[in-house]
Specification:
By secondary structure, the chain is an alpha+beta fold. It has one domain: YaeB-like fold, CATH 3.30.2310. The chain contains three helices and five strands; from the N terminus they run E-H-H-E-E-E-E-H. The protein has a five-stranded mixed beta sheet. The longest helix has 29 residues. The radius of gyration is 18 Å and the shape is globular.
């Protein structure tokens, strides 16, 4: 009896939008082709995955394996997910061989930047809605 030829199922669509900050976008462009896209897709599927970095106000650190290197030689990605009305922000994509842990000073600076990033996004979204409504505040 012949076996049925099923087409492979497409990967599930990401639920959340992932936006790279300008600094991270530059790092993504220099990463290997396809790797940054794959990492973004994984982040979109599970924005709350990863370890919370203490003292940052909610930033998370996730580890991804690099091809043929495993997790130890892979990438470390720092993300921030505030709420459902705000996209997941990809803050940094770091080759684990290039950088050690985040210092306390960097954590403190990151805490202030994350609150500002979230507020700026919401203000921009409100302005866009107002513009689309023709200046009305319905």
């Amino acid at each position: 009896m012949p076996q049925s030829r099923r087409r492979p199922r497409p990967p599930c669509c990401p639920k959340w939008e992932v936006r790279a900050t300008p600094g991270c976008a530059a790092l993504c462009r220099t990463s290997k082709a396809g790797q940054a896209v794959w990492v973004r897709r994984k982040i979109a599927q599970a924005p709350l995955a990863g370890d919370i970095i203490p003292g940052t106000g909610g930033a998370r650190k996730r580890r991804f394996a690099a091809p043929r290197k495993g997790r130890r030689g892979g990438y470390r990605v720092i993300t921030y997910y505030a709420a459902g009305d705000v996209p997941v922000f990809m803050l940094a994509l770091v080759n684990k061989g290039q950088r050690a842990d985040i210092s306390q000073g960097e954590r403190n600076a990151l805490k202030g930047e994350l609150a500002e990033l979230e507020a700026d996004y919401r203000l921009g979204a409100q302005a866009k809605v107002k513009q689309l409504r023709g200046g009305r505040n319905d």
